Amino acid sequence: MERLRKESVIRQDAAIKESHKKHANAQRRREEISGLIKKLYESYAADKIPEKHFTELLTGYGAEQEQLDREIAALQTAIDSYNADSVRADKFIALVKKHTEFAELSAALLNEFVEKVIVHEAEKIDGVRTVKVDIYLSYIGKFELPELEEVQPQEVAKRKRKPRTEADREYDRKRYAKKRAARIAAEEAARASILQGTSFEDQFRKSEAETVAS
Asked: What is the predicted pLDDT for the residue at 30?
């Protein structure tokens, strides 16, 4: 969130203010030119200026007006883009806040955060097979990973995980069984709360007692 605000919001604040200022100045100048062209036609119609001067001035005003039209259109596109980026940034930040803490990385959660992942063709760099992966996050697009510490090949072997022992696997089985039992107990408590006071409560209690007995 800190990086996103720094890169998209704060950076845009200064840029969008400058764009708004230039846009307003260009609009004001265009209106001035429209007034000048109107007065020019009136002066020409009243024979106050010769045709040569009229043509030169009209050509110059017309060229400036066309340039201003292009500038105004470009600035408006930039302003719209800034506004859209700001909205997308706010949406992404809201999504981050929604999932600040989560128990597991589920497919649904990934689908909320990740728009697409592009895996490039593998290539060998200094004898190491390397695959470039581009991650596009929802609302904000391509995500650049922070610089990681470079690990030398000889250090990789040192950092490899130790072989798992039977004691490790037994610990994992017990931890999984404990978590599963807790989840089932929570689900049963939730069902009991929902059925409390209804005609299904006695049936649920009977079923629960039979399950425990078995």
From this structure: 92
